[in-house]
Design goal:
Layout: E1 4-6, H1 8-16, H2 18-26, H3 36-50, H4 53-62, H5 73-93, E2 100-110, E3 117-130, E4 135-141, H6 146-151, H7 156-169, E5 175-182, H8 194-207, H9 209-212, E6 213-219, H10 222-243, E7 277-282, H11 288-293, E8 298-302, E9 313-316, H12 320-332, E10 339-343, H13 345-360, H14 372-390, E11 394-404, E12 417-421, H15 425-434, E13 437-443, E14 449-452, E15 456-457, E16 461-463, E17 466-467, E18 478-480, H16 483-492
Parallel strand pairs: 1-3, 4-5, 7-11, 7-13, 8-9, 8-10, 10-11, 12-16
Antiparallel strand pairs: 2-3, 3-4, 5-6, 11-12, 13-14, 13-17, 14-18, 15-16
Helix pairs in contact: 1-2, 3-4, 3-5, 4-5, 5-8, 7-10, 13-14, 14-15
Amino acid sequence: MTKRAITQSEMVTFSRCEQLHKFKYLELLRPRLQSTNLEMGTAIHLGLQHKDPKAARLHIEGNSKGLILREDIEAAQVTAGIVEIMVRGALEMWSEWPDQAEVEFSLNLKNPATGRSSTMHSYAGVMDGLCDRYVWEHKSSSRVDASYMDRLDVDFQVSAMLEAASIRLKRLMRQMIYTILRKPTMKRRKNDTVADYLKRMEEDYAKRPEFYFFREIITRTEAEMDLWRKEAWEIHKRILHTQNGGLPVRNTESCVGSMGIVPTEKHKPLTNMSDYVWLFFGEPKVGKTTLANQFPGALFLATEPGTAAMEAAEMPINSWSDFRNAVKALLNEDHKWETLVVDTIDNLYEFLTDDVCSENGWVDLGDPGFGKGYKIARRKLTNAIATLRKMNMTVVFISHERKEVEINDSGGRTGAATITSALPGSARKVLHGAVDFILRVELGEDDARHIRTLPYKNNNQHVECGARGTLANPMPELLDLNYKALAAAFDASFKQDQPTNGKD
């Protein structure tokens, strides 16, 4: 008996809606017209496969009659130009591409309990690329954000391709290079010719490559591979049930429904400390780590031995890979921890930059020129912070501090020195824009330790502090250095009566 090959697309469709799967894969119903997005995806893959931007253009030009907008010749011309620009930009962005392209594979679907293969179905697909160390996947997408990248950690297809590569090469393959090309967001102006519009678009892709092109290394553990094998077998059984006449279950959300994205009323302010993201900065050994450890259920992602002298829970972080694995574990495993403390974000950013440089073969971020390396690092930091914000935990960042002095062309000081967190300028902007509270831990004139909540400025220095938005009552400028004082001041900021000071 000939097995029917199940593809990744079929499994995704079945998981989304069993009735849609029946229409598409069992009754073989298809739309009369190929979508523009699918044609673009095919064209981009061809261009990357042949390392030739013109191959992408020629595919669109040769298949323009299949586009939804085929009656609009200019639309087909624009689409052809777009895919050429995207492929050229990706090829200029990275020099490393797979040795083998478009590698077809077929896997036996096995019963995890018995080890026996299905007599009805196999799993088939195509790897975009394969080399000795990595499987390669190329995607194009209109939207690339932190949630998109997070989904890759559980993506079904990644595991399937790594399994296929392991069988093909007869050794374990557990890493994939995932490349994403962002589709343009630039709108065509009213009086733009096709040439004008494509020229502006090409200039934007060249100016902002870090916005349009992304590359990540995705890793799978053996436990994750075992889970994929079990899930693949279960989906296969459910497809077989429908294939043999079983009733497909409809997902009615795929049939009808409004998105309902326009709000109908204002949301209430968040009044729990756990709903906010915190940044504490200050000189070494002033008490930042001690304060963070007082947060409920604190767990440290420790990039330095700051908790050695206290009772604390920590996960040692010595590389960017350690950080990614720690976050993945916290997202996937049951645990009791309520607060996640990154101590320090300064060291973590160093790990991040090392990873970016290693991935691209650079000595430092300045090697590629035009700020490209720094832009990639900023994007990676932005995505990491966004991922942490989505975790069901209070997030606390700890940073050392630095003093920045503005100097004029003659070498003279132009103003007050700024005391702020220790990250370099561009990364600091990302961090400060992402957190809700920026607080300094400092020594007062009486050697007492305080939490500074409000900015301070005199003729000599300016201390950066503050809170997102406007609290009903601003917290006192200085608080005693303990969680109890901070929590009391925070709670009071949402009440009508302002406390007279931050002392216990």
